[in-house]
Amino acid sequence: MTVYITQEVRGRDLSDALEFGDLDILIPAKDQVSLSSMPTVRRMERKLVRFTSEDYLMLSGDPVCIGIACALAASANNGRFKVLKWDRQEARYFPIEVDLYHSRRE
Known about the structure:
By secondary structure, the protein is of the alpha/beta class. Helix content is 24%, strand content 25%. The protein has two helices and five strands, in the order ββαβαββ. The chain has helices at residues 38-48, 63-76, and strands at 2-5, 22-25, 56-58, 80-87, 92-99. Strands 2-1-3 form a three-stranded parallel beta sheet, covered by helices on one side. Strand 4 (80-87) and strand 5 form a beta hairpin. The chain is globular. The two termini are 23 Å apart.
């Protein structure tokens, strides 16, 4: 299991996310999506091509990076991906499953 962090946020403690898998940063904090998004797409695609139902996205940083990561994860996994949502009151992450094609029954 891997937790893909969409973009590194300096100074943020992510150790609580380790219970969901190994952490892998898709885009470093200093990088920005420029007018041409293709370099960012290619960089993220190389890591997310093996995204499975066992993996998670941690949505942080640039909203464009977040959108690209969700699209690539869904594409690699038949429209399904999981994200980790931080709950401030509980001070922990909760997994949320997204199924774009309604392939699972709730």
